[in-house]
Amino acid sequence: MIELSVYNLVFPDHIHILKIAGYKFRRIENYPEAFARLQQTINVSGGEFPIIPNTGSHQITALVEIPDTEERAILPWISSNFTKLQDVLLLLSLFTRRNVFALKKDEEAKPLFPDPRQHFRGGQFRLSKLEDSKYKHKETGELKSLEEMKNIPVFDYNLIDLGFEKTINELLNTIASNEWRKDYGNGYFIFTFRQALKQEDIEPAFLLCWTIWEHLFALHNRQWLDQKSIEKTSGDKKIAFILNKYLLIDFDGSARTEVRRITTARNSLVHFGTIPDSVDYDEMRMFMSLTEQIMAIILRLKPSNAFNTIERLKSFLSGQRGDSAL
Q1: Which domain holds residue 45?
Q2: What pLDDT digit, counting tens, does each position of 23-80 carry?
Q3: In this structure, are residues 67 and 23 in contact, taking their beta carbons and an 8 Å threshold?
Q4: What DSSP string describes 249-271?
Q5: What total of structural domains would you count in the chain?
Q6: Would strands 60-66 and 2-7 be described as parallel, antiparallel, or unpaired?
Q7: Are 7 and 156 in contact (CB under 8 A)?
Q8: In a domain, 243, yes or no
Q9: Could you tell me if residue 324 is inside a domain?
């Protein structure tokens, strides 16, 4: 049996094993110590372990058992030799807010190039994962549903999140399906989304999200528009198309004016390196949060609106400045 060391994988509370696409991830023995040495940015209590802010670093937090026969990667990685493990690690990264990667034993002494910091964005996307919580008995491991626990004291049980593992497995099935690939091709824009979530600064994150919208417009119009026609279509028309397709937004004169305004901001940033005073950072953050919702829809998840993104969008499209902050 081949095992690889897995870096920076944070398990859901009280879950010690994750079974994903034939791979078995299990916590290392000193997982609590490794978890504490990861970068943490806020104080959190009440979970399995207390979280105390610290600069942190890369940590081996798990081992993964490799199946005897591995499937080829689903996504278009740079190497044709990559296996589905790379897809799994990417999705784990998106839903844990960290760069999750695996190395062989003889690779661990080499310099590590991935960023050890938590991702700066993506909170609303992560809240779109599948919900499946159960109570697990601390000694016997018996599982009970929330309904079954209504009249039972919870002191001997831990509440565990089974939705995390289920989400990753469902997403792998989704992006491998012929139906999904017919609409979204090889899914390259998922790589772009990963890069957007990592960005600390607003400007590059905003431009990466805009690239995703442009990519989606091309995918949905490639049957009746050639490449030149797609390239010549103005940015505001592309944004309006995506908003209507995914969020069922209808456009009046005011809405089109506002979309043109944020399109001008994108053009100014790309061509002149500045953002005009007519657009503020809060509106750019709103656009990035919309991208997270759209990505959840694309991946067949139920998009979270925990940050009131839809309400902010409606305020923005109505021309109400200062109400689109997220």
Answers
A1: 2-122
A2: 999 999 999 999 999 999 888 888 888 888 999 999 999 999 999 999 999 999 999 8
A3: yes
A4: ----HHHHHHHHHHHHHHHHHHH
A5: 2
A6: antiparallel
A7: no
A8: yes
A9: no
